[in-house]
Amino acid sequence: MEDETGSLRPGAAESSQKFPKMFANYDEVRNLSRPDVLSATGAAASRAKPRKVKLDSIDLRIVRELQADGRISFTDLAPKVGLTTSPCLERVRRLERAGVIKGYTAILEPRALDAGLLVFIELSLTYTSPDIFQEFKRAIQKLPQVLECHLVSGDFDYLLKARIPDMNAYRELLGELLRHLPGVRNSKTLVVMEEVKETTAIPIGVR
Fold this sequence. Notes:
Mean pLDDT: 80
Strand order of the largest sheet: 2-3-1-4
Low-confidence stretches: 1-8, 12-47
Order of helices and strands: HHHHHEHEEHE
Largest sheet: 4 strands, antiparallel
Radius of gyration: 21 Å
Structural class: alpha+beta
Shape: elongated
Distance between the termini: 38 Å
């Protein structure tokens, strides 16, 4: 499969075998043929645990380049990592199959989508049953405003990251958290005044 410039993109060769003539748009084919690809909202992220795979220096260069530009063509990627196109394609496919590359997504501007207010919420649970954590994890998945949820050590149980339009929307979200999430005992909110650094890039080769 080729992009607008006639160049192969990551994932295109595998997709083109499944849908050789049905779709003209590469992104359509990629998203339909690979369920592990992240949606633009991040809701469809694959949760499969990556297989144990040893990464060499070329693999690390590949993932570093793809983190910087997930839409780069194979013909542009290959020389950047010291390969020709076919070996580069096979490397990327191997990294995808192993779960090292979980998917490809669009990074959106929150303020353009009326989600400019960023908050972190600390939640503590009441341990009323041994299943409370499983019940909480199932319930939190249903709140699209919550971008991340982490079980942490310390004085509270969960740290949530949420994006919402404004403080009115935050109050509605907080009411929803307290009403519908099982076992919530108390909460504490930190409103972000300035986003100094935010990135999705995993540090590679940094110790």
